[in-house]
Design brief:
Layout: H1 2-8, H2 12-24, H3 28-41, H4 46-59, H5 63-75, H6 81-93, H7 97-112
Helix pairs in contact: 1-2, 2-3, 2-4, 3-4, 4-5, 4-6, 6-7
């Protein structure tokens, strides 16, 4: 369904949602590819950068790229607390405890201001 939508309506939003669907289906490489396409359509969407971070972490081999994507999502003012919590958990799972702590603190601070 999302794939049909994304191919018929090529927007950052449609590709981002297709990427999120791939993440939940544990198709991490596909998620990363689709989210990269979403990023081409809109480089200023902090949620796309955040989901790219999560895809890279779950894919297990792109830690440095995930850090860069996370940094960009924060620079752009990401407000998706649940996504930041997921990113924090995955950072902890790959042993990046200090960055995980910062991501979790960011999520909690953002949630407190909503």
């Amino acid at each position: 369904m999302f794939e049909m939508c994304a191919s018929n309506y090529e927007t950052a939003f449609s590709y981002m949602n297709l990427g999120v669907a791939c993440l939940y289906l544990k198709e991490f490489e596909n998620a990363e590819k689709v989210l990269s396409k979403a990023n081409i359509f809109d480089t200023s969407n902090p949620n796309v950068w955040g989901y790219m971070t999560l895809a890279m972490l779950l894919n297990g081999k792109r830690i440095n790229s995930a850090f860069q994507a996370l940094k960009e999502s924060i620079r752009l003012g990401i407000e998706n607390c649940d996504l930041m919590l997921d990113i924090g958990r995955e950072l902890a799972a790959v042993g990046q405890n200090e960055t995980a702590k910062k991501a979790l603190e960011y999520a909690l601070t953002t949630r407190a201001h909503q």
